[in-house]
Predict the 3D structure of the following.
Amino acid sequence: MRNLPIGVMDSGVGGLTVVSELWRQLPSEQILFYGDSLRCPYGDREEIEIRRFTFKALDFLVSQGVKMLVIACNTATAVCLEEAKDRYSIPIIGVIGPGARAAIAATEKQKVGVIGTRATIGSESYPKTLHRTHQKIEVISQACPGFVELVERGPIDREVALPIVASALRTFKDTEIDTMILGCTHYPLLAKVIGEVLGSGVRLINSAEETARDVSHWLTEHEMTRSDKDVLIHRFYTSGDANRFTEIATMWLGQKIEVSSYDVWDQEERKQKESSCARR
Ligand code: DGL
């Protein structure tokens, strides 16, 4: 069991920010990644759809044999984490708890900003999680639709990004927050521009680092770290265009990876067609 890969899912390429941290903190672990780029963004969808897509992706990872699941997507974590914990017998870690914990440790003024997709902000998962540990913390949230598209387009062009980011973050002007949770896997890739808009007095929290730390603690505590010393072969799947995914992933991870095109929904349809043909 301990030599199985860690299964990581995201709605697209954003979850690679978590993979990058897992590689840094746990270089001996094997990763099996599924990015549902064909259906990205999840963040503008209804909960019912986010649930269907997320569980389909997680079921796929579990069917491949993984020792742990990481939901490297804030939207999917907000909507599905609790249910996923009941559904699977392996440990499952989301990105919201770790991000909230890092923010509590970072804020001195007890004033925290949260930005994320419409679904994540609408779920109020961050304020609820923050208030569970720290009731007096002031939380100001803002959905930032448009940021994901900015990142998915490829290299960030500061001139293009700056006015969009500045306009979305107007909410935080004069709020005196000293900490901002980047509550979406894509946003760390916009961190430079976000930091420029908010100024140096606001600390940016990237939950990827803290999430990888949780994974590391769990594996160590339960003696589940990989013991095989053979060459690691990571596997990356995307339901979208594999070439495009490879291009963005290589840029973000700083190394070339092999990405296969695989849509879990296609396989399902194929199976249904095959079994209806067999019945005829
Ligand atoms: N991965 C999503 C998140 O962290 C962002 C992209 C999307 O909306 O699907 O919320």
